[in-house]
Amino acid sequence: TEDLNSKLKSNIPFDFIEKNIAALNLFDRHHYEEVEEVLRELNKVKNTTIGIFSSGEEGFQRSKIKKIIRHLHKDHLHIFMFKHDNLRELFLKYRNCKLIIVDDFLDILHKIKESNRNTITVWIKRKERSEFNKAVRIVGFKPDFEIKNLKELIPIVKNK
Questions:
Q1: pLDDT (tens digit per residue) in 47-73
Q2: Dihedral of the alpha carbons of 125, 91, 82, 23, in degrees to the nearest 10
Q3: Comparing C-alpha atoms, which of 159, 96, 114, 105 is closest to residue 137?
Q4: In angstroms, rounded to a whole number, what is the distance separating the alpha carbons of residues 66 and 24?
Q5: b/e map of 35-44 (b: 16 or more CB within 10 Å)?
C-alpha cells in the first residue's frame, strides 16, 4: 500500500482532489445545525457585521462556509492556513472596532484580549471537544463568556 500511496500522491495534483471533493458538498456536515439560524438572527441586530476568522486550507474552508456565506460580510472573511500566525493582521484591521470574537481555542481568545482589552471574548465549548476544553487553562485569563451552543451568542450580541 505504501507504493500505491506514493503513486497516488505523485500523480494526482492536490488542486484536482480539492475541487472534486468540494464539489461533492462533503463539508455540509461540518456545520452545527444552529449556525445558519444564529447568523440569520445576528444579521437582524442593528450595527452588527458578521465575519469569519478561520484556519485551514483556503479552498476547503471556503467550501465549508459556502452554505452560510450569504450571512457573512465579504470584507470580513479572514481565512488563514494558521490563524495563530495571523493575529496581528486581525488586530490592526479591527483596532478601532468593538469586536466580539467567538472561538474554541482559548489561547486565541487570550491573545486577542491581550491585544485589545475591549474585545469581548466568547469561548465556545462544544461537547465534541469537551476533553480538549477541560484540559486547557491559561493562568490569569478567563474569557468574558463561555457558551456550549452558538444560540447562546444571540443575547450577548444583542446586549453589547
A1: 888 888 887 777 777 777 777 878 888
A2: 80
A3: 105
A4: 12
A5: beebbebbee
